[in-house]
Amino acid sequence: MLSHPSRKGGFRLRYGRARTAGLASTAINPATMFLLDSFITVGTQMKTERPGKGTIGTPCDQIEGPIVLLQNGDLTQINDVKNIRSDVKKIIDLGEILIPFGEFHENNSLLPDSSYVYEWWVQDLQQVLGCLPKTNKINDITNADLTLQQRITQEFQRFVDIRHPTPQDAFALAEQYTIPLHPDYNLFWHDLSTENVRTLATYIKEQGRPMVKENLLLTLPSNPEIKEILIELGLLHKQREGQFIVDHYAYPLLRCCGLEIKEEKIVTTDRWSLPAEGDTTIEFVSRLSGVTIRARAPFRIGTRMGRPEKASPRKMRPPPHVLFPLGNYGGNQRLVKTAAENITIEVEAGKRRCPKCEKTTFRITCDCGTHTQILEGKLEKQTINLSEELERAQKNIKEHILPETIKGVIGTISRHKTPEPLEKGILRAKHNVYVFKDGTIRFDMTDAPLTHFKPKEIGVPLKRVRELGYTKDYLGKELENENQICELKVQDVVISTACADYFIQVSKFIDDLLIKFYGVNRFYKIKKPEDLTGHLVVGLAPHTSAGALARIIGFTTAQVCYAHPFYHATKRRNADGDEDGLILLLDALLNFSHAYIPDKRGGKMDLPLILTTRLDPSEVDKEAHNLDTLSRYPLGLYEASLKHEQAKNLEPIMGLVAARLGTELQYEQFGFTHDTNDISEGPKESLYKTLKTMMEKMNVQLSLAAKIRAVDEADVAYKVIERHFLPDILGNLRAFSKQSVRCPLCNTTYRRIPLQGVCMKCNGKLTLTVHEMSVKKYLNISKEIAEKYNLPVYARQRIALVEKSIDSMFVSDKVKNTKLSDFF
Predict the structure, then answer these.
(1) What is the C-alpha to C-alpha distance for residues 179 and 170, in angstroms, rounded to an integer?
(2) CA 668 to chain CA mean position, Å
(3) For the chain, which end, N or C, has fewer CB atoms within 10 Å of the first or last residue's CB respectively?
(4) Rounded CA gap, 589 and 605, in Å?
């Protein structure tokens, strides 16, 4: 649990789209990822309060990071991963979460109140001065901002930094143009009551000491009540020698409390007053300050971690190298060498006939070199001289030494039980890659959207990026350095470095296969990851039967597959935690076969039966049509959020992809509102994946919950027990009472224990498939947590009832363990 719904200290809603956002994906500051003990990283699924049910975390360092309380009492904000502190006592605020407008449109949601952010403030100022951009495209926005800066410099007769003004300039701008105070000096006034504000103002007036040097400093004597108010307010300060020292917010704090400095003393202004009846805190503070104050964070988003990110090979259980049936001859690990020690094996393999010499065999190719044909009819077990077949395969591909481990399958599950050639299994084992049920080799990664990238982010030299067709950046300028931003082409993908390493092995397997099995030249000839760029892959989502063609252009250290939202939508997926597989195109063309397709309901799912070679935006999943393409959200959006309007009402002004369909702009000239330094910035792996035991995961989770202000750790403990531990215990208890038994020698299972008490096939000793400890494993930890966090009586009673049920299963009422001393 990262934050309870709408609770103070949770993620603050900010409207906008990062380069990695859209299609259900959102963005947070990378510093937040690290401060959350690295539970969240790029691609980690998060369950959210709104607008949708789920999202993935991606980085954006242009939005605000977390506010933390340090062990020494300092309250500071961390916006950069370089400033991460290890001495954090409490996470007071998680920072901002950047959510695109398109997500609210997709979910048919009302627009919650927007935080008062720079892109809203600057348009308020531009509206007053009559220099709002004509459109929300990057060139018009840049020109409007430049015009604004020139106007302000001219009117003030000096340079005033519009992006980050001084405190005095921020108030001067607000007063001169009757606009709200600049967001740089806004605080969480709405989180305080008017009484809190009055208490703080009185304390500052009586106890505050101003120090005017280069910048104003304000010191206050330490006070527990005032400390709580400062933390609630989000007012950054240092605590030294019994004093609170305020620097950045010193002047705004005095102004917002109706105070000023005269003759080096703090005095009241003519705005000093008591709150009027019915005043909100924001109205009261606005009156005290003399300028309009807007809510800094009127809406917070509740979040919790979903499943961790993924970048790993797709494997069957257990993972085979070849789809060749071994029955039980290969032992538990289905080893081909072990099965070959029996010389001959009797397994189910489809019969095929050579049309030339009319020889019957199980092989796809006859000894005479002719392709065999399937014989229809009843499938029967065949006797195969596996030792001879293995030797033949080894000789055929001229491999002098067989790999130590070559794994097959117990039996094939296709209609005609067609086995794969053993040669392919030998070569896969040699290169340490594994086959999937359809004969292909796949690598699964979490889906992450990307519309723009920098050459430095994808681990490929600038020269190679230009060779791939990226000769200009997204502004139309010649691509000359690695920090320029390029617009991603819709069928290009950036794969994880783990995937690149695996695909190098796959490419070596395919090259060996081409030379040694098919007798043609190598194709890939890949020696390093960069050599993969430009090669084609097939993306495939589970529960679909159509692959989508793509081109590799680079690599990311994040455990995701970055691709254009259109590409993910072509696979009928979004970016709320979905994961899909990639297959090297030549692997799919060579090794996929209808002969291996499972003969069962749903057997044609998750297979590349069809290949989409050209992407048409009008034919992709409609969710991608709600992607917004503006470079800055218009003022109308922020004003509409104050009225909680339906997102659909703003569709005409938000530049959605749907309005571009059928035009040249459906593929290009997309905008984004917030940039980031690096799309891979953040922890490289979620901590959840590195922790081995459930006890470790539980302890770290509760430790983090205790650190986050927006989380109630007792509630987290209760939910873990109620939703995870107790259902697991009860499920395992039910499974124990209904379990089957298994013979470890021949792997035969029995629904009920035979009367003989041993395996009826081999007389082997039978073992349980569900064990006592798997039932009890979470019982003690549940009791300890219930006691430690003083959980509700109902929860403790449930645990007691479960324990009683377990005892009734495993503890006999008739048999008691006694000692001699018990009789005296």
Answers:
(1) 10
(2) 26
(3) C
(4) 18
Asked whether the beta carbons of 514 and 525 are under 8 A apart, the reply is no
Residue 208 CB burial class (10 angstroms; 0-12, 13-18, ≥19): buried
Side chain identity, residue 200: L
SS3 at position 504 = helix
What three-state secondary structure class fits 821?
helix
- Residue numbers in the chain where pLDDT is lower than 70: 812-820, 822-824
Strands 373-374 and 352-353 come out as antiparallel
Q: CA nearest 8: which of 197, 231, 199?
A: 231
Tens of pLDDT along 482-498? 999 999 999 999 999 99
Q: Residue 147: in which H helix or E strand, if any?
A: helix 138-156
Q: What is the pLDDT of residue 810?
A: 84
Residue 292 and residue 180 in contact, taking contact as beta carbons nearer than 8 Å: yes
Structure token digits, residue 698 = 């539980």
- Residue-by-residue DSSP string for 176-227: HHT-PPPGGG---GGGS-HHHHHHHHHHHHHH-EEEESSSEEEEEE--HHHH
51 preceded by cis ω (within 30°)?
A: yes
What are the backbone dihedrals phi and psi of residue 696, each rounded to the nearest 5 degrees, phi first?
-65, -45
For residues 738, 742, 747 and 749, what is the CA-based torsion angle, rounded to 10 degrees?
A: -40
Cβ atoms < 10 Å from Cβ of 66: 26
Which two three-digit tokens encode residue 620?
């992709």
Burial class (CB in 10 A: 0-12, 13-18, 19+), 119: buried
- The two tokens of residue 423 are 């040669």
Helix (H) or strand (E) run with residue 11 in it: strand 11-15
Helix (H) or strand (E) segment spanning residue 500 = helix 497-512
DSSP state letter for 266: E
Length, in residues, of the chain: 824
Query: What is the helix (H) or strand (E) element at residue 565, kind and residue range?
Result: helix 565-570
Q: Say what the pLDDT of residue 356 is.
A: 87
| 316 contacts 437 by C-beta, under 8 angstroms | yes
Euclidean distance between CA atoms 350 and 375, whole angstroms: 8
- Nearest residue to 445 (alpha-carbon basis) of 540, 524, 569, 572: 540
Please tell me the predicted confidence (pLDDT) of residue 380. 82
Taking the model in full, what pTM does it have?
0.91
> Which residues are CB-neighbours of 167 under 8 A, at least 6 positions away?
185, 216, 248, 249, 250, 251, 252
Give, for 396, the enclosing helix (H) or strand (E). helix 386-396
Determine the pLDDT at residue 448: 97
Residue 663's H or E segment, with its range, is: none
pLDDT digits (tens, 9 = 90+) for 581-637: 999 999 999 999 999 988 888 888 999 999 999 999 999 999 999 999 999 999 999
- Across 623-711, the runs of DSSP E, i.e. the strands, are none
- Pairing relation of β-strands 88-93 and 67-70? antiparallel
Token pair recorded at residue 349: 């393999």
Stated as kind and residue range, the H or E segment containing 637 is: helix 635-642
Distance CA 699, CA 705 (A): 10
Phi (first) and psi of residue 407, to 5 degrees: -105, 135
Tokens of 574: 């979004």
